[in-house]
Design a protein that fits this description.
alpha/beta, Alpha-D-Glucose-1,6-Bisphosphate, Chain A, domain 4, 2 domains, seven-stranded parallel β-sheet, 16 helices, 19% strand, globular
């Protein structure tokens, strides 16, 4: 890359996603300026790099060629990190291919020098899964224009927060005995996420990678069965008993993954189908052109587990979901459950307690009911509670929280969650923190549940759960108040000890 090209911004799509969110930080560390494209820029507000003077965020939909071309203007290279996560149904392949063609055309109109795409490893031919076939179609679409394309093909990426890693971890943690399809015998060449990021950044400075398709993988080739046993060892668990059976189809496998792990069946299905394909590098060209120390599978797993234990997950697979627009409440029946309480704590402390809701912390009251609701949601195809949350203390716009999505966040003032559980309607849970004008050490917490039912089923659902609101919502409000006030007490020094009066002089004399 020329010196002039180095000064041009690098265009990054998918910056709110798993790889893109980490790639931006690596590019900045390497001295590049970055322009991030996002359908909803607010989803990037929590990223630690967003305030860097070398980062520019533009509102852009990759399906709009004209807007995309204008957003790319002045950039040197562009990363295409856009994929359909829920790859189910006939429409997703056509949509992904069309987006790739639009991107290639816009890149040509903007005069870009190169497109870089992270695709998937896999043997070619008619046996390739639909998921990996779609990735090949995207490759061809991106290469359809005059802008040179660099393709990096990876197998399973091992890193905290990745969908494939979470599936592996939960299966091994929760199932000491597993009945699996034949794909556990398939060979794979996993790679650590930090090694993937190195290749993505390094290729910008290596002219020999322009116009090339490069396979990237770790130093070991293993079967998925061996990979599971390595995960068990890293978790300190006994060796898992794995029984191979011929009747588990990809559909049944995805439903089982849906029930046991936080990953939905729509995401698990294409991943499960792809497991039947051998995914091993054809050569070591990438390693020769962009040398680095490749982490072993055990090292990669332990690094990811360490991030998870320390709550330092930088990005997660569920953060990249589409954001719903503002709901149109006009013309519909709205049900509202609003409750308020005075809290003996300043607004920032009250908000901190609110922001810890869900995940491992639970919901402050009637957690068993939330668990039951989570299981019910999983059984009908919803996300349930197992997605958890990325950080135990902080929430950002667009993040997933159990079966909610953060749709509004204003630190120390408000938090709004929209339900992504299976419901016959639209549900919003909103928290507002109002400071006390006369006493800065007090605040009012208002909790509002809003439901817009769909049809008679929605009405029946609302009235059926109404008797539980006193237990669930009132308990949650009380629990948040208690947590905030306890946090205030724990920060204050102990009050001076006041001598207790004694019943008679002899007790007082004895004690002195």
């Amino acid at each position: 890359m020329s010196a002039d090209s180095f000064r041009k911004p690098v265009f990054v799509t998918g910056a709110s996603g798993y790889i893109g969110g980490r790639l931006v930080q690596r590019l900045l560390a390497a001295g590049y300026r970055v322009r991030c494209a996002a359908r909803e820029p607010r989803k990037l507000e929590s990223r630690p790099w967003v305030t860097s003077p070398d980062v520019e965020v533009v509102r852009c939909d990759v399906s709009d060629g004209a807007t995309l071309s204008r957003s790319m203007a002045g950039c040197g290279s562009a990363y295409y990190l856009v994929h359909s996560m829920e790859a189910v149904g006939p429409a997703y392949r056509e949509r992904d291919r069309a987006l790739g063609e639009t991107f290639a055309s816009a890149a040509a109109d903007a005069g870009l020098e190169r497109i870089i795409y992270l695709g998937g490893l896999g043997e070619t031919g008619p046996r390739l899964s639909e998921h990996l076939t779609s990735r090949r179609e995207v490759e061809r679409a991106l290469a359809s224009g005059p802008v040179p394309l660099t393709v990096l093909r990876a197998a399973m990426i091992i890193g905290s927060g990745s969908a494939s890693f979470e599936i592996l971890r939960y299966l091994v943690e929760r199932l000491p005995v597993m009945f699996t399809p034949r794909w556990v015998r398939t060979e794979s060449q996993p790679i650590a996420v930090r090694n993937v990021l190195h290749y993505l950044v390094a290729c910008l400075g290596v002219p020999e990678t322009v116009g090339r398709t490069l396979d990237i993988g770790g130093p070991e080739i293993v079967t998925y069965k061996e990979l599971m046993q390595t995960m068990a060892a890293a978790l300190g668990l006994r060796k898992r008993i794995i029984v191979t059976v011929p009747v588990l189809t990809p559909r049944l496998s995805s439903l089982w993954i849906h029930l046991v792990t936080p990953v939905s069946r729509r995401i698990a299905r294409p991943l499960a189908e792809g497991l039947r394909n051998r995914v091993v590098c054809r050569d070591d060209a990438a390693e020769r052109l962009m040398p680095q120390r490749l982490l072993t599978i055990r090292e990669a797993i332990e690094a990811a587990l360490s991030r998870t234990r320390d709550a330092e997950i930088k990005t997660a697979w569920f953060d990249a979901g589409p954001m719903p627009g503002d709901p149109d409440w006009a013309g519909g029946k709205l049900f509202r459950d609003e409750r308020s309480v005075e809290v003996e704590a300043p607004p920032e402390t009250v908000y901190a307690a609110v922001a810890r809701i869900g995940g491992a912390n639970g919901y402050y009251a009637a957690d068993w009911l939330w668990q039951v609701r989570g299981w019910m949601d999983r059984l009908v195809g919803g996300p349930g509670l197992r997605r958890g949350r990325r950080d135990p203390r902080q929430l950002a716009f667009g993040e997933a929280l159990d079966f909610w999505r953060v749709t509004a966040v204003e630190p120390n003032r408000q938090l709004e969650l929209r339900a992504e559980m299976k419901l016959p309607g639209i549900a919003i849970l909103r928290f507002g923190v109002q400071p006390n004008d006369r006493n800065p050490e007090r605040a009012t917490l208002t909790q509002t549940a809003v439901f817009q039912p769909k049809g008679l089923t929605g009405l029946a659902y609302w009235y059926s759960v109404m008797p539980l609101h006193g237990l669930v919502f009132e308990g949650m409000l009380k629990g948040i108040r208690q947590a905030a006030e306890r946090a205030v007490r724990e920060r204050r020094p102990n009050p001076p000890t006041v001598p207790r009066p004694y019943a008679n002089p002899s007790q007082q004399t004895k004690s002195t």
